[in-house]
Amino acid sequence: MQTPTYLAAELRLPTNWLDYTILGIYFVVVLGIGLAARRSVKTSLDFFLSGRSLPAWVTGLAFIAANLGATEILGMAANSAQYGVYTTHWYWIGAIPAMVFLGLVMMPFYYGSKVRSVPEFLLLRFDRAAHLLSSILFAAAAILIAGVNLYALAIVVEALLGWPQWVAIVVAGFFVLAYITLGGLSSAIYNEVLQFFVILAALIPITVLGLKSVGGWDGLSDSLTESRGADFMTSWGGTGIGSDNPLGANWLTIVLGLGFVLSFGYWTTNFAEVQRALSAKNLSAAQRTPLIAAFPKIFIVFLVMIPGLVAAVLVPQIGTADSDLQYNDAIPYLMQQLLPNGVLGIAVTGLLAAFMAGMAANVSSFNTVFTADIWQKYVVKHREDAYYVRFGRLITAIGVLASIGTAFLASSFSNIMAYLQTLFSFFNVPMFVVFIIGMFWKRASMKSGFWGLIAGTTAAMVNYFVIYKQGIIDIPTDQGANFVSAIAGFVAGAVVMVAVSLFTAPKPADELQGLVYGTRSPGMAEPPAEGDDAWYRKPALLGWGAVILAAACYIPFSF
Amino acid sequence: MSDHYSERDLQREITELESKSTTAARLFDIRRIIGGLFVLYGVIVTIAGFTASDADIDKAEGVNINLWTGLGMLILGLLFLLWLWLRPTAPPPPPVLPDEKKETGEG
């Protein structure tokens, strides 16, 4: 989730007609999905939430694919080349518990209240101030992230295929624009499911061949233990409080900062993710969406971490001044070194698909929030439904054009973009505080939501930009500082919410039905659909199964 | 504020839109696309594996990676088509108007 830095120019891939044929077929299929999905769009609910009618396995794989953008794949491989097996924390503690919490605890409120977006839930639970603030910030962040994704794609495509940056930006932008405008969220989700399988077909050969080239897991482990020390190959080694490790974080900041605050903020309140679950066909399918996604998430870490570790063996100076290769080049480097034409085409297609899906997830959530939360509620109200479908298509086009603009801006001001991204990331943290207190404490007042958001964001930013950047407290790395800032934002948001609630009026109890723990919304009484009572579809079993499996995965990497 | 937006308004609005929604009835089944694309990719990459040069195989650590990846993709594609064949898309349930539901359900 950080902007990849520049790839070295000598990473040019030896692509031929075969690879371009494979890539061309993919682009045709992407457009075909958009065209074919077009006839299913009649109401605004079809366009923005697929009519709340998709099966759980589709929304589940889209949920994971929306997160598995190319910046995530390249970034986590980079993380592994730099910090080693610590990367597993971003998956096993930094994702699974939050995904399970979303499915088991929060989804009944989200799905049962029939909200169309995360900000809309804030409107029902709190007031217009909290709603408008979160809608505007989310819309701005989505465009920014889509633009940064597009820029990252342009850099990678320029290095690997030799296309000029503007060509890559315009081509990728056009395809995303076309298929979302045509088919709405259904088209975005279907493309994400397809992308999920293509990216697996790309990463598995890279991982297998990479391992083979360094003498298997034992060879990898031995040579990195020798060059980087024993802690490099463990998850928890060197994370005692007060001891020094390359990540700059101890077990407490990892568990609280990454595992609790940052991860719950991202997975449970980021609408680009939650939207996938809201498009499921019933409450059971919505609950299972993040739970089905959790299982691939547990194992995907190996497909990004191993290539990163292999690159650290093959190019010991990676990421330092002695080498032209940046940490972010780990996967492209292995593609160049190991893949013959054919599989190389699959890998290039997978990478491009992942960039486009990462952008499309942001665009398809942006258009929903902008139309349903901003335009329909504050600007042009009470028009017929067809008007909002037309407006949704128009704003999709405007959103894509704006992110193309952002991508061009990012190419000249990449530092500013990195700052802005950090800034927006701090907004997720108080969102989570406000949700968790709002859902579990009836007394939390209407005004407390807005002030909790403001206080938490401010505290996280002050901690990061003033206390850490000015060197008032000493944290060795940006990652470590991120974790601490998240904890500060969480605590400040919670304290302010409680304080404001004590002095302002609570929301009347009859307006909280289905929004607070222990109440039910009027629409939630629907009976389970046929077949949903099968044991393997029980949300509790799936959720706890994922948590136990993730904990078990830590065992071989803890000693 | 005069136009206060409550949960009841939202429930009514979404329920009405759900009854008019056409996604369930008209959206195609994604299994067909995944199956078709992976069979096609599988065939292309498998052929590249059969015609692989020594240089290709040496590059990939002595593994005919095109052959194995191609076969893997082909099998995945066929599995999706098989799943579609065994469990075809369920026809959408007939729309039930909320009013009828109340009348038929006794007590």
TrEMBL record, chain A:
Main location: membrane
Recorded family membership: Belongs to the sodium:solute symporter (SSF) (TC 2.A.21) family.
Pfam families in UniProt: SSF
GO CC annotations, alphabetized: plasma membrane
Subcellular localization, as worded in the UniProt entry: Membrane
Family annotation (CDD domains): SLC5sbd_u2 (cd11478)
Keywords: Membrane, Transmembrane, Transmembrane helix
Keyword field contains Transmembrane helix: yes
Membrane-spanning intervals of the chain: 20-37, 57-78, 90-111, 132-157, 163-182, 194-214, 249-269, 290-315, 343-370, 391-410, 416-441, 448-468, 480-503, 540-557
Protein name: Sodium:solute symporter
NCBIfam families per the UniProt record, alphabetical: sss
Taxonomic source organism: Streptomyces pilosus
Membrane disposition: Multi-pass membrane protein
InterPro entries: Na/Glc_symporter_sf, Na/solute_symporter
Automatic annotation (TrEMBL), chain B:
Keywords: Membrane, Transmembrane, Transmembrane helix
Origin: domain of life: Bacteria
Transmembrane segments: 33-53, 65-86
Protein name per its UniProtKB record: Uncharacterized protein
Species name: Streptomyces pilosus
Taxon lineage: Bacteria, Bacillati, Actinomycetota, Actinomycetes, Kitasatosporales
